[in-house]
Specification:
Helices cover 36% and strands 24% of the residues. It has helices at 14-24, 39-49, 57-62, 80-87, 102-115, 129-142, 168-186, 241-244, 288-301, 310-329; strands at residues 3-8, 29-35, 68-71, 91-94, 119-121, 145-153, 192-199, 207-215, 227-233, 252-256, 260-264, 268-273, 276-281, 333-334. The strands form two sheets. Strands 13-12-11-10-6-9-8-7-14 form a nine-stranded mixed β-sheet. A five-stranded parallel β-sheet has the order 2-1-3-4-5.
């Protein structure tokens, strides 16, 4: 079955991730309209895919020839395109940031649940070949995770028509993806978080470095269960090309009961146990972008009532919000 989709927002990953995936999956997806705040970009993308540019996400969601909305980029719309999709019973694939504000998140949760639509957030690290192989090794060879070290170094970028300036929302999304990755690998929910930040300039609203420590202890004092240290830095200008790539840390290190693994997202995995070193180069038949869209296609076309998938990402955003409270109050924050 082909899904007829409308696209809202193109964004910086359009050429690299979304357009190639849609072309490769032309037997599963058919684009029937594109809404983008930069009109000439919408027309160009529509021409490439043989479709039309549509003025307004509400008009796009209301069309009878649309089954689902692919919301691919943060723009000024916020959650409005998702709410419009709910109004018209259209499934949503969300590559844009979701709200940190608790009241806004509750409204979104309620509207998605009431509409009964299929919802999937774009979480590429979950679907990376290295992550899937790591989960297999945890179940069969390495044992349960004890400590995770998750680091991301993001070059500073120059804003453009397709690349919006970095703000608190984009920083929160970056952290949310890392939090979700660690929750997914551990397989349980964190019970507390402590965090620190470094402002880009004194009293600035954005940061050039954030770090948090998640504790997954289920009973007793913190520190008696798995922990995850997560950091995200924006302190290297893109013009310092050699510095950006100099000795980058593994995206994820996982110390387990019976060994340790080093993950280089998306395809690199090196792990050690009593037998020694094992290096795996994991080439998948499909890109991560294709795998995520295929998962969305299965959710939408399933005969079962769709599980929204919203709770997972809102749970990760709740951790990010608690980390912000920890940064400002200088204390460990329990997670409900």
């Amino acid at each position: 079955m082909k899904l007829r989709v409308g696209i809202v927002g193109l964004g910086p990953l359009w050429e690299k991730r979304h357009l190639p995936a849609l072309r490769s999956l032309a037997d599963r997806f058919e684009v029937h309209g594109i809404c983008e705040q930069v009109a000439h970009l919408a027309r160009r993308a529509a021409g490439e895919l043989g479709t039309v540019a549509v003025e307004g996400f509400r008009a796009l969601a209301a069309r009878d020839d649309i089954d689902a909305i692919l919301y691919l980029s943060d723009q000024w719309y916020g959650v409005a395109p998702i709410l419009a999709a709910c109004d018209h019973g259209k499934a949503v694939y969300a590559g844009a940031s979701l709200p940190v504000d608790a009241a806004e998140a509750d409204v979104l949760r309620r509207r998605v649940e009431q509409s009964g639509i299929a919802f999937m957030a774009e979480l590429p690290r979950r679907y990376a070949p290295a992550t899937m192989r790591l989960k297999e090794l945890i179940a069969t060879r390495l044992g349960a995770p004890r400590m995770l070290f998750c680091h991301r170094r993001v070059p500073q970028i120059t804003p453009s028509a397709t690349v919006p300036p970095r703000d608190g929302a984009t920083e929160a999304r970056d952290l949310m993806e890392l939090v979700d990755w660690c929750r997914y690998v551990v397989g349980t929910e964190p019970t507390s978080v402590v965090a620190v930040r470094h402002a880009e300039t004194p009293d600035a609203a954005i940061d050039d470095y954030q770090m948090m420590s998640l504790d997954f202890t289920t009973s007793g004092a913190p520190g008696n269960g798995p922990i995850a240290q997560i950091s995200c830095g924006y302190y290297i200008p893109a013009c310092w090309e050699e510095a950006v790539g100099f000795r980058p840390p593994s995206a994820l290190q996982v110390a387990c009961e019976k060994g340790i693994a080093f993950v280089d997202h998306p395809n690199g995995l090196v792990w050690f146990d009593t037998a020694g070193r094992h290096q795996e180069a994991l080439d998948a038949d499909r890109s991560v972008g294709e795998q995520m869209l295929l998962q969305f296609h299965r959710k939408v076309t399933s005969l079962l009532r769709p599980h929204s998938g919203l709770e997972e990402v809102l749970g990760a955003m709740n951790v990010v919000k608690a980390a912000s409270v920890s940064q400002h109050e200088g204390r460990r924050i329990p997670l409900a």
